[in-house]
Amino acid sequence: MATLRFTTAGESHGPGLVAIVEGLPAGLELDRERIDSDMARRQLGHGRGGRMKIESDSVEIRAGVRHGKTLGSPVAVLVANRDYANWVDRMNPWPVDAQVEEVHTPRPGHADLAGLLKFGHDDIRNVLERASARETAARVAAGALAKELLRAFGVQVFSHVVQIGSVAAPERDDLTPEDFAEVDDSPVRCLDAAAGEAMVAEIDRLRKANESLGGVFEVRAFGLVPGIGSHTSWEDRLDGRLAQAFVSVQAVKGVSVGEAWEVAGRPGSESHDEIFFSEEKGWHRETNRAGGVEGGMTNGEALVVRGALKPISTLTKPLRSVDTETKEPAQALRERTDSTVVPAAGVVAEAMTALVLASGYREKFGGDHIDDALDAFAAYKERIGWRR
Description:
Elements: E1 5-9, E2 16-22, H1 32-41, H2 51-54, E3 60-63, E4 65-66, E5 69-70, E6 75-80, H3 88-91, H4 112-119, H5 125-131, H6 136-152, E7 156-164, E8 167-168, H7 193-208, E9 215-222, H8 238-247, E10 252-257, H9 260-263, E11 275-278, E12 282-285, E13 293-294, E14 297-298, E15 303-309, E16 320-322, E17 329-331, H10 342-365, H11 370-384
Antiparallel strand pairs: 1-2, 2-6, 3-6, 4-5, 7-8, 7-9, 9-15, 10-15, 11-12, 13-14, 16-17
Helix pairs in contact: 1-6, 6-10, 8-10
């Protein structure tokens, strides 16, 4: 069975980040500008820190692509860390002569202490460098390749911010791909201008108080056919795979598919999407409370998934902690940090959504070459009478 999988490697201030994507069919055309555009979008957002002034992320393809088309073999991509020049002694893969200061004060809310205990390290930097959300640059690179595959099947994936701190945007259930055309022009990637302005003010207010902010982002995917995923096995259920993918993103603590929390308090008659059929539309729904997933499978409506992001655990006014060497009270580590990353987290979640969906499409339609997969896709749509 054809499938798609990926892995990443690299540390926040190491030489660079690597992603390896396996399972892309041969003959898929890649657009370099679209891929680099996604890398730049991950760095957007009011409230980002000084690191974004140093890095200017782009993707270097090191294997699996020739003359702009995939070869069917694993694709290896490299995202260089420009800031490594300032960290050569501290993050060199090989021993150095310089005295390198160790980190012994774990941050509440971070991987620092649990990772130190689990792996038996003395220096917390051995944990925090990999746990850092800088790793998501490699995920976005992998996701950009997945988006190229999904585009061949007519699928588009977008994201926007619906809440930062205490400020929430008005609910919208009528969104179309066209509504996302200028989402990145907003400093917080919010579709509502007034709410976006209020979010910026909230970030500025709490930043002055040495606070970080969390929030909620939403990912929507359009153009999906029914039947991606499966009800036959827990590990094949698409909503389960999406939930795991979202919570794997650093600082994401909650996920909802469709109107999850809303329908939890409603009667059944107000919780499900009634089914209709017409010669013009074929199978369709007039509501989308399920968020495009029923029984672990896409149902043909837009996919709607939200992620709840906690405030960043690195604070400019550190919380109380304990020195892991002396066991004495101490302030938690303070490093360069962002005030909020909710806008960027949406872009990362786009990538993770694309990777999950692309894997589902590979499993469903197979094919060593993209044309084989598209032929199987066309035959499937014909069989189920899909008219969108």
